[in-house]
Amino acid sequence: MSQFAIVCSGQGAQTPDLFTSFPFTEKGFALRQRILDARCVGSDVNDWMADPAREPSAIFQNHFSQPLICLYQAMVWAEIADLLPAPAMIAGYSLGELTAYFCAGALSPEDVVRLAGIRAREMDAAGPGGKLIAVTGLSPSMASSLDGALLAIVVSDDHCVIGCSATRAESLARELGAAGARDVVILAVSVASHTALLDAAVEPFRSALQQVGWFDLKTPVLAGISAVKVMRREQMEQVLPEQIHHTVRWDRVQQRIQESGCRVVLELGPGNQLSHMAMARGIEARSVDEFRSVEGIGEWVRATLARLG
């Protein structure tokens, strides 16, 4: 069994220079053009890509960030997939779980980007005015026990993400600090993902998911809400929409990767938060953001696997 795993980043580390920060070649740019020609993103998103400097903050708006991050990840995967050994499993953090199904061969890149736009639209409609707060130094049970706090993501025994209404965010952040949290950061997002505030988004997204084409999975995908291995369409149609309003158990996903014998992890980006989490567990991990060439990514993965035996 392979000792290699892929993890797909979620929202948070994207920047206006998203499509110039990675060393894309013609392969990646050709896929981007194909997806844009298929009208998988809205005209306003397409216009933004032509001149990100005109409104740089748009990249943090759900309507822009979700399809653009999935587009970026699809381009990265097109560049590196043939340079890598077959992964044992693929996992995605929040939004990244959607891209994971493309990397595993189940969904087309066009459908992934289109679905990301639908996901963003339904989440915005269901829960405008939400916020997420990253909390370290406090147990998830303690952090979520405060009034108005909803447990969105569990990363470890003392690291979690809390969702709440936008009007509650500032006061809740202060209360989390007073309760003993070491670090409290209100994230640059506009909806409280993975909480009951987004209940209304789940079934519309599931309906859209059921209408796209499906290909047999080449690699199992770990469900974000449970770390269960997904290999069938009906499983995906159940668990992928559910993570919109249920707690993501990234702690269990990380544990499943480690217990499965994976010793090398590559994060698809943008950002390197997931690779740092893996490194904290003693796993060799890097993000594609750290490399200057696509060839260097493949060389690092193969050399590290060879060194670890």
TrEMBL record:
Keyword Calcium found: no
Residues in Malonyl-CoA:ACP transacylase (MAT) domain copies: 7-308
Keyword flag Disulfide bond: no
Pfam families, per the entry: Acyl_transf_1
GO biological process: fatty acid biosynthetic process
InterPro entries associated with the record: Ac_transferase_dom_sf, Acyl_transferase_dom, Acyl_Trfase/lysoPLipase, Mal-CoA-ACP_Trans/PKS_FabD
Domain of life: Bacteria
GO cellular component: cytosol
Keywords: Transferase
A GO term, aspect molecular function: [acyl-carrier-protein] S-malonyltransferase activity
PANTHER family reported in the protein's UniProt record: BLL0263 PROTEIN, MALONYL-COA-ACYL CARRIER PROTEIN TRANSACYLASE, MITOCHONDRIAL
Protein name per UniProt: Malonyltransferase
Organism: Terrimicrobium sacchariphilum
Organism lineage string: Bacteria, Pseudomonadati, Verrucomicrobiota, Terrimicrobiia, Terrimicrobiales
